[in-house]
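Help!! Second protein's tokens look totally different from the first
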Amino acid sequence: MKRNMMKNDFKPLLIEQLSDALCIEKESELLLPKLQSVTTKESLKDTLQAQLVTVQSSIEKLEALAEIVEVDVLNANCKAVKIIVEKAHDYLEADTVSDAGILSHLERINQYKSAVYNSAIRFARELNNIKLQQELQNLSNHAYNMIDRLGRIDSDQSDERAINSL
């Protein structure tokens, strides 16, 4: 049986997305310095540092947004998020850790962030909360920009390998 969703039906969905967003940002804050310490490529280290600064800012913004919309996201259950981040932690414990592997895990994390932010934006729109929608769009843009930046690092590595193989 299909039913029309009422506006209040979107609030729990928004809370879930905000909780996931805050969780992945907090988990990223713990993970990024570890990734940075094992990478060998200077441009990747710089990107990881830039992402850490962005993540810290995103955490502050998400906590403020949650307060504004009066939702408790601080004690969220983050099972899906933790699985993604645990894979990156497991990778760091592997015998061989490469910059390409680090990039792979970062891209996965940032793709998940983008999906979470896009869903939250959709629910904020349904709730007619324009300010929240705009703030979430800004956070989503940061995730997309990081995905683009990571992609360019990967291209730089491919170019480097191609040149070295000549």
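Here's the second one for comparison:
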Amino acid sequence: MTVDSAEERTKKKIVECHATDENTEKLTIRIGEPMTGQRTKTRGRGRAAREYTERHTYCTVKAVAGGLGGVTVVFDAPLGQICSGFENPTLLDYVESVRYEDGTVEYKNHW
């Protein structure tokens, strides 16, 4: 198995990736689909505390550029328009996995 150089990877087209924003919301980004996010929250206190999952849907993704070091997401909306809390385009630093058009997938190493 050969490992692509960083230069070759930047030429590949990203079709899907999973990232986390600064508010620890886990995001699923797929070209041509709305970006979705989910975050686990706690309701109540003490023994009555219960965890629940909050889910969000954002604008449709038009393009994604970058890689595991960070991705820029461009939404199918006028540039600069706020997309439910995300600017257009928006930069995400915490990328967990990237799937390219040719089918290869890269995962961030967890130490």
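Reply: Different proteins will give different token patterns, so don't panic. Residues 71 and 92 are 5 Å apart (CA to CA).
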